[in-house]
Every structure is written in structure tokens, then in C-alpha cells.
Design brief:
The protein contains 18 helices and three strands.
Length: about 450
């Protein structure tokens, strides 16, 4: 490397870990209660709920009788993982492992960002996005799931079977990683994902009773107070709505008149999102190196917005998948990812800092939710439009995508030749063509 590029690369390698170390030390100090973060204690999910599940799981059964257990069977691995550090208390061990998963994501993004045609912007999205959400990130196992998802997306272009296996495993951790392969062009990725998920499901069913009780655990849920649909009831409370805000199925929900109607509308919108993604997949003709990550980011974003629950930890998924999108120079998701980062900061303002205002449905609480959910809706629409234009229609997008893809292919041509793929052929372009992969 020449001097200028060498120093740029060294800065790219050094600065993100330094900022990561400082910000994550602060997060650990908060979850370990060296410092007290304002608002409700976010660590009780680990010290009370997760530890309670740990005691059940280590005796050979799933907590099927507990309505708060709403997770697929591989989630047991995350709950049991603090046992790997027996010299620490359960909660402390969990926080340390969450931090290690966070570090693993940073390492993956840094490695990906330094390849030809890539950029370290993705690593910076992760470095900045996680602390914007506050200590809740380390007090939920979603950061561990996100680490698996990031690894799957980064493996997708070159190792489709690895990507499929990770996506299948991730889906059994927390369902949403099943969306990671919506933009995959290699059939082997889907086949491997199905085999992995199926095999692990059989093992879980044989290992302990109640492995799939989660499938009916959310049947009677209401609408969570932080969801998009919940805004209806926040406003309705000021006009005489006679429902309640209660702890139900492990979250604070609205229960009462018309809640079932709003919940049904949310499920209908989720179905519409699935239909749109299917239409996109059938009509898309241009699958570029960044399409897999951008399709996954868009899908997770759309399903999050239409969910009956938009808990703070859901933003960890979006920050992680968005970070992968920004690893690619030719990507088109910069603005939607930026909106997600802003929404992450607003999220910590509404939970835990302003959660008392949210539960009370006072003007401040409504304003925070309206801003956060509005940003996510805007990001969803923008991401969907950009994904469609970059892969289906739009002469401007087609020209831009072709130019950027050519630029990236030029960078990766040498790398492709090193792997025996022929001159000018990047790894993502080998194997199935878009026409045959559809």
C-alpha cells in the first residue's frame, strides 16, 4: 500500500474500535449499575425473567407454562449461555456475552468494509447506532441474534450455504432472521436454511418438551403501547376511550374496546408486506452484490413497522442489517439507514427515559412515539421504493446501479480471478444468474 491509502486503512481499523470501546464501557457501567440510567430498570428482564427461564431450561424442559416465553427453541441457547461463565453471576455473565456479541459484529463489519468495493461506513453505523439505544441493548438477547444475522448477510455473496445455515439457525433464535434470504439468488442458500432449521427443530423437540409452545403464546396479545397501532389508543384516551394499559404477556399493552380491531389491522398490514415482498421477488431482475443485504433490511423494517409490538430492542435488528447495507459503496440505503439511526436516538428518549409519559399517554409521550414511529414509517417507505427502483424499475436507478455495480465489479475483478472465477467475474456473480435464480 502507498502511504496515503495505508494511513487511511489504518485509521479505518483503529478509530471504530476505539470509539466502540469507550461507548461500550459506558453501556456496561450502566447495566452493571455502577451508574444508574434514568427511567425504569431495563436489566430486570435478565436478572429476573431470563434467570428464571435458565433455572427451568437447565433441568431439561422449556418454560412452556410461562406466557412470557414467546421465543423459538434455539432462544434457549442464549438464555443458557451465561453458564459458560460460571465464575460470574448470571446477569453479569449475560451482559459480558452481549458485549462480546456486539464486538463480533464490529469485527465482521470492519473486515467486510476493508474489501475492494466496500466501505467502513457500515462499521461506523454499528459503532454509533448501538449506544444510541442505551443500555437496553445489553439487557436483551437481540444483540446475539443480530450478530448471527450480520454474519449471514456478509457470507451471502461468497458462501451461500453458510449464509443459509446461519439464517436457519437465526430463525430458530428469534424468527425474524428468516427474512434475511428474501433477496438470495442462490437456491442452495434456501435449501441449507431449510435443512438447518428443520434439523434443529427436530433436535429441540426430541431434547425437551414444550419446544414449540411459543407458536400459541401470543394468541391473546393486545396492542403494545409503543407500536404504530398503539398511537390510536394514546390519542383515544384523551377522548374517553375506556380501555386499560396493563402488563400483559411480558409487555405493556392496551386492552379494551377496539384493540382486537387494531391488532387485526396490524396483522393484515403484515400480510400485505409479505405480499409486496413476494411480488418484488418475482419481478426483480437486477441482483447486485448489495441486493441481499438491502432486501433483508427492507423486509425487517417493513415487518417491524407493521408489528403489534415495536419494542426498543427491535431497533438493534435494523441497525445491524442497515450497517451491512452501508458496507457496500454501491448501496442505495444510506438515507433509510440514517432515519433508523435518528429513530434509535428517539427510542431511548421514549424508553426508558420517557416511558412514564408514554404509559400515561401525555403530550410528551405521544410526541415521542409519533416522532419515532413516523421516522420508521418514512424509512420503510423510502427503503421499499429504493429497493424496487434499484432492482425492478426506474431508468435513473438502473443507470446508477449499473454504473456503481460496474465500479464495484472492477474493484472485485482481481479478487474473483484469485478464486478461479475467471476475469472480471466477482464471487457474487458466479453460480446462478438472476434469470435462473428466480
Amino acid at each position: 500500500m502507498d502511504g496515503g491509502d495505508g494511513w487511511a486503512t489504518r485509521r479505518d481499523l483503529v478509530r471504530p474500535p476505539v470509539v466502540w470501546g469507550v461507548t461500550r464501557a459506558v453501556l456496561l457501567l450502566f447495566v452493571l449499575k455502577v451508574f444508574v440510567f434514568p427511567g425504569p430498570d431495563v436489566t430486570t428482564d435478565v436478572s429476573v425473567i431470563y434467570q428464571g427461564w435458565y433455572d427451568v431450561l437447565r433441568h431439561g424442559s422449556f418454560p412452556a407454562g410461562d406466557v412470557t416465553w414467546q421465543y423459538p427453541p434455539a432462544a434457549a441457547l442464549a438464555v443458557l449461555s451465561p453458564g459458560l461463565l460460571p465464575f460470574l453471576g448470571y446477569a453479569t455473565a449475560f451482559f459480558v456475552l452481549a458485549c462480546l456479541a456486539d464486538l463480533a459484529v464490529l469485527v465482521l463489519l470492519l473486515r467486510a468494509g476493508l474489501r475492494p468495493g466496500r466501505t467502513p461506513r457500515g462499521a461506523w453505523v454499528w459503532v454509533a447506532g448501538v449506544p444510541l439505544l442505551g443500555p437496553t441493548v445489553y439487557a436483551r438477547y437481540d444483540v446475539m441474534v443480530t450478530a448471527v444475522a450480520v454474519a449471514a448477510l456478509l457470507a451471502g455473496a461468497r458462501r451461500p450455504r453458510v449464509a443459509g445455515a446461519l439464517a436457519g439457525f437465526g430463525a430458530l433464535l428469534k424468527v425474524w432472521p428468516a427474512l434475511l434470504l428474501v433477496g438470495a439468488v442462490r437456491r442452495r442458500a434456501w435449501v441449507t436454511a431449510g435443512v438447518t432449521a428443520g434439523g434443529l427443530s427436530v433436535l429441540a423437540a426430541l431434547a425437551a418438551p414444550g419446544a414449540f409452545a411459543f407458536l400459541t403464546a401470543q394468541r391473546d396479545r393486545g396492542t403494545e403501547v409503543e407500536s404504530l397501532g398503539g398511537l390510536c389508543f394514546h390519542v383515544a384516551r384523551h377522548f374517553g376511550w375506556r380501555g386499560q394499559v396493563l402488563l400483559n404477556y411480558g409487555s405493556i399493552e392496551f386492552l379494551g374496546p377496539y384493540v382486537d380491531v387494531v391488532s387485526t389491522i396490524a396483522l393484515t398490514l403484515t400480510g400485505a408486506v409479505f405480499g409486496w415482498l413476494l411480488l418484488w421477488r418475482l419481478t426483480a431482475t437486477r441482483f447486485l452484490p448489495h441486493t441481499l443485504a438491502e432486501a433483508a433490511f427492507t423486509a425487517v423494517l417493513l415487518f417491524t413497522v407493521t408489528s403489534r409490538v415495536i419494542s426498543p430492542q427491535y431497533l438493534v435488528w435494523l441497525v445491524g442489517t442497515g450497517a451491512v447495507c452501508l458496507c457496500f459503496r454501491a448501496g442505495v440505503m444510506r438515507r433509510p439507514v440514517g432515519l433508523v439511526l435518528v429513530a434509535s436516538f428517539v427510542t431511548v428518549l421514549e424508553f426508558p427515559l420517557g416511558f412514564v409519559h408514554v404509559v400515561a399517554s401525555d403530550p410528551l409521550g405521544i410526541a415521542l412515539l409519533l416522532l419515532r414511529d413516523g421516522l420508521l414509517v418514512a424509512a420503510s417507505v423510502m427503503a421499499a421504493v429504493r429497493l424496487w427502483r434499484s432492482t425492478v424499475t426506474g431508468p435513473e436507478a438502473e443507470h446508477e446501479a449499473g454504473h456503481e455495480a460496474g465500479h464495484e465489479a472492477g474493484h472485485e475483478a482481481g479478487h474473483g480471478a484469485e478464486h478461479g472465477l475467471g476475469p472480471g467475474l466477482s464471487p457474487v456473480e458466479s453460480g446462478d444468474s438472476p434469470a435462473t435464480a428466480r
